[in-house]
Amino acid sequence: MSAGKLDTLTIYDWNQTVNDVKNQGSILARNFPSFFSQEINEQTMKAKVTGIWLKWELTNEGTGQYPIYKCYIEDGTLEVDVENKTNKYDLKNSWIKICAKIEIDKSSSTEMYKFSEKEDALYSIHHSFPFDKENRVASNLLEHLFVSWFKEHRNLLNNHVNNYRIHVRTSNDLTLAGWDTGYVTSFSNVNKTILEKELYPKDFKYEFEDLDFGFLFNMKGTFDSWEITTGADGQNVNFICKIGQNSSLTNETGNKTYDFSSDAFLKVQVRLEYFNSTEKTIEDPTGLNDGNQVELRVKTDRDQNQNPPVVLVDSYYSEDLASPLLNSIATSMFKEWLNENIDKFENIFSYFLLQETAKNEDFQWLKPTTAYYGVASVEDENKKPDLDKSVFSVMSMVENHVNKFPQHTVDARLLHAVNNESAFGIDMPLFVEKWVENALVAMQIGTPEQFEKTDNGLVISNKERIKFATIENDSGNDVPGYVDEGKFRLGIINNQLVLEMEDLYWEQARGIMGHVNYKQSFDITLKSGVDELGKEYSNVLIPIENTDPTMLMTFTIEDWKKNENLIIEIVTGVAIGILVGFIPVGKIFTKLKDVVRKAFRQSGNRMSAELGSSVAIAMREIAQESGETGAAFFRRMSQEAADEVTLFTRPGITTQQIINEVANKPESFFSKIWKNKYKVIGGVVGGAVGGMVPTAIIGAIQNAQQEHYSLLPTIHEFVANCVGTVNWPDNSEFEIETAQLQGIYLMGGKLNKEK
């Protein structure tokens, strides 16, 4: 499946940003307002906060688009008057943490940022008000005043944050942010399970007393549902808790009851954590089930920054409870109830088997050794939550790999890319190591020790000169063809499998040394349909050439002047042989030579023919006049390629001996190219069975050439090993429908629920 166009992903690095801030701290120490003042003025209640800011500190606690500020108060006072009873509170040396959603300011001509104007996109995370436990109403009023002040002064936050270099990186391709694998589903699917299992708190009851103001309140009611929603990224997960009927808040002091509205809700933010399971409840059909089972549940204690397990992001109770005082009382009660009772939210979001042993050792590399999670919120064009596209992800490392910069960042475009309800991704360097290396080994052009990974693990290149082939040249001699260090490349480039050789050289005729640049690209495609045998097949992963190969053949100007016609004949034979598998004769060959002659250009002391797509099209059209198809040649090349792979099964032979035997076998250059192409195809198809299995590669070469796709291994066993150690709580099974290279190796599909 070809990669579709994606929006650019912006990844924020708050750790690096904060490190920069610390380095510039003395310069920017006063880049914030000195004073603050905010008040509430109602008939029965007045509240006012005034004071002096000590500093605003951007922390490294932020995730995604949600940075967190810690704002320190040098000195200040909160004054609250309720029914003519006044209390004053000292704020000296306290602080408040504010989380706000940041956006790129599209109205600015330079790279500037601004904080979102959405009402619930700025909220308090935590604070150190010294009277919090004793005077909870005052504490929540103060929190409300500060949040209101920041919302009214977003411009000051904008000015402050734009004084720093915010470290971001962008990606047009998909990413797993350093994790080996990622298994994702939509918020909608998560919510279906939550609603089906009903493992959220069904009711609430809480008594609240504030001695400062002489308040006594009781609250009781029910929850209709808890549903995951947008408005957070990374490790922070937001839920909408819908308050049910017959829910109320009672002022015992004033003997008055306030009913919650039918659309009352709480928007809460929690974090999740993996816990060891008390019993083993899942099985991996592809493993020995000897792994350690962990389950992802809500974190019930404070995090490493001492933030509470539950943050109340937003709420609505009723019009009767809209006054700041009553709202603060209700908010205080819900905050305390939530943090005391969050353990009643018993929903399990996923299960993992860690350190599981695969039944087939060739698939052991797919078994996770470390588990993580993350979310990514997606909104539609109207800025409304898009729960079908919002991503809930469980990530892992395999083979005890270490993510050097672990984070909970999730690519919000994963579900959009597959246009399905679930996806499984493998990091591209890991895909290259485990799949593309099979193709390299199958090519038999060198030992593993002669190659290394480059381009951040996406490309395999030779680290020393290799003998590519023994080539029958136009003088009838068998001569060696070499590729110098770093000039052979096989890997993933621009989401395609690319085989590339630069300056492959050999004596193409007596006294004429030719140099060839060769490049062939493949799409890795998941095929289904009816094959040449008339049999149905499905989900066969196979490389398909997406363009004709391109070549650049170069000779010295001296050789050109002496042997122009011979060189043109050599190049014509090589080019048409690679394109169609046969070399026409007579008038047709003369026409082909004319095309090649026109392709030659002089550059310095070199004459070169660049044989790109336009030349290839012209030569193909001419070759068709011969009536030949090359079918017999293709069958012979695929059989010879399979026979050479059979050498791996010969008892007692070493890899180096195999390489030497293949490299020393005389053949035409274009025959070598065709055989290598079949070996690449066989090696990639063979990856579906887990590794370098010669018999699988031999069968893949032969059946792929004949388009007997029903006889090729499907990707089903591979997929089963990918997801066997991960269970969603509804026990659904991943059914693959698409596969593509798009920054990662991404498989999309449906989740079939257990009946």
UniProtKB/TrEMBL annotation:
Protein OrfX2/OrfX3/P47 domain mapped to chain residues: 177-578
The keyword Membrane belongs to this UniProt entry's keyword annotation: yes
Keywords: Membrane, Transmembrane, Transmembrane helix, Virulence
Residues of the Orfx2 N-terminal TULIPs domain: 4-173
The keyword Transmembrane is annotated on this UniProt entry: yes
Bilayer-spanning residue ranges: 566-589, 680-701
Family: Belongs to the TULIP P47 family.
Protein name per its UniProtKB record: Toxin complex component ORF-X2
Species annotation: Paenibacillus dendritiformis C454
